[in-house]
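Lab meeting, item 3. Inverse folding demo.
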């Protein structure tokens, strides 16, 4: 509840384009998803999607059946208001990814940009990975982005864990085959640069 309250305060007091992780378009994530999506029937979950515009671009491109999950109801409401009638085409879930109940083998693509690095407790990371194993179908794809070794040590007033690509992949274990990893120099709305590392895996 404390974590949820924190993120509700963030989205209640800051504009969506003022938070440090804001991107006008999640271009790298969108490109990775486009490469592996099989068409409009591809089931995609954007974990920690919040007020991100990734869902807008997925819908505009006819890419997949999209679920957006976030711990903040206020963040999801911002996205729904922006989408208007198109919001009805998305499944919205408010909940903590370490504890929310997701259906087994429900998704072809799991996407997370900037949730995993907030999981500083090993038990929370284990719970997250267990969710991925349960909710992604065998052969499904997992795209997770977190702060790289040169990224900030804190974000939104909270501590984070920074990862080399190999370290990030190692959190998931042998069931996850690493297909690719990428680095992104993200420019925040204030003009600073944050290093993100993306790992793209397939679940066996």
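The presenter then showed the designed sequence:
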């Amino acid at each position: 509840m404390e974590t949820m309250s924190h993120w509700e305060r963030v989205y209640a007091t800051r504009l969506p384009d003022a938070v440090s992780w804001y991107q006008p378009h999640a271009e790298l994530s969108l490109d990775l998803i486009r490469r592996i999506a099989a068409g409009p029937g591809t089931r995609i979950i954007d974990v920690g999607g919040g007020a991100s515009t990734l869902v807008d671009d997925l819908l505009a491109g006819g890419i997949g059946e999209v679920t957006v999950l976030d711990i903040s109801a206020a963040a999801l409401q911002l996205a729904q208001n922006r989408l208007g009638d198109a919001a009805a085409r998305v499944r919205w879930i408010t909940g903590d990814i370490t504890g929310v109940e997701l259906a087994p083998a429900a998704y072809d693509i799991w996407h997370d940009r900037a949730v995993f690095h907030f999981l500083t407790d090993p038990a929370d990371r284990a719970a997250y990975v267990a969710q991925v194993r349960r909710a992604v179908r065998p052969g499904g794809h997992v795209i997770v982005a977190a702060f790289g070794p040169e990224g900030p040590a804190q974000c939104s007033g909270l501590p984070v864990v920074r990862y080399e690509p190999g370290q990030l992949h190692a959190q998931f274990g042998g069931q996850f085959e690493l297909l690719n990893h990428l680095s992104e120099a993200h420019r925040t709305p204030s003009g600073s640069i944050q290093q993100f590392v993306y790992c793209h895996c397939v679940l066996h």
